[in-house]
Amino acid sequence: MSYDINDRNLITFDQAEDIALYTEDLKVWYGQNEAIHGVDLQFEKNCITALIGPSGSGKSTYLRSLNRMNDGISGTKVTGSIMYKEVDVNRPEIDVYEMRKRIGMVFQRPNPFSKSIYENITFALKRHGEKDKHKLDEIVETSLKQAALWEQVKDNLHKSALALSGGQQQRLCIARAIAMKPDILLLDEPASALDPISTGTVEETLVNLKENYTIIIVTHNMQQAARISDYTAFFYMGHCLEYDLTRKIFTRPKIKATEDYVSGHFG
């Protein structure tokens, strides 16, 4: 079945102060292939937004664009605006490393450094000039508590992070990202490699984190999107066709493609 990519239902927010980040006419090319077609989306502060859609729909490409993770990929070009605190972070003169302190990223598979748990958290902080041992200790404890990992590792902070379970490693990666005190946390299928119990723990962690962070997550898991997100955006063939409150997307979608996808009758 084919779907009309011009049939769209996208919400917008009334108050600018409610928006953590938004994109205008964002396009991504891989060589001559336009992978993302002029996406306009706004992300509300202190909410979880899920990006869903079939494989190859562009949701991960779009997510990675939000903090310039597509930079450096040969043949890739990103145009349009990515607006954060009234600054277009897609401009070439932007300090990408400084920007990523504010817009953090957690990847699909846990990728802890082959260092201690403590050093995983403090590595980037030290590189940015933080040398105060007391402050570093405080950030390590706070970050691990926010990632719901402190009680499990507090007596083993100087042991290798690689000895942790997969779920613990992923929560360590979340702690590592939030140690930089970002405003926005991007997650690309963070639970896809985890067992159901670890997935539940990560989901609970994210729900608790939204009190302090704006979270944007790519997921293939419809139940996960329905459980933890406040808003959901449906991607198809590089377009965002529908964006609304999650409860509306899963109960009263306006677009036929969205309805088919969330009900399992897509294709």
Polypeptide structure, described:
It is built from ten helices and eleven strands. Helix 3 runs parallel beside helix 6 (166-178) and helix 4 (133-146) crosses helix 6. A hairpin with a 2-residue loop joins strand 10 and strand 11. It has 267 residues and is α/β, with parallel strands linked by helices.
Structure summarized in a few sentences:
With 267 residues, the protein is an alpha/beta fold.
Distance between the termini: 5 Å
Q: Can you tell me the overall shape?
A: globular
Approximate strand percentage = 25-35%
Number of helices: 10
> Based on the structure, what is the oligomeric state of the protein chains?
single chain
Strand order of the largest sheet: 1-11-10-4-9-8-7
> How many strand units?
11
Helix content: 25-40%
Low-confidence stretches: none
**What is the chain-wise order of helices and strands?**
EEEEHEEHEHHHHEHEHEEHH
Largest sheet: 7 strands, mixed
Global structural class = alpha/beta
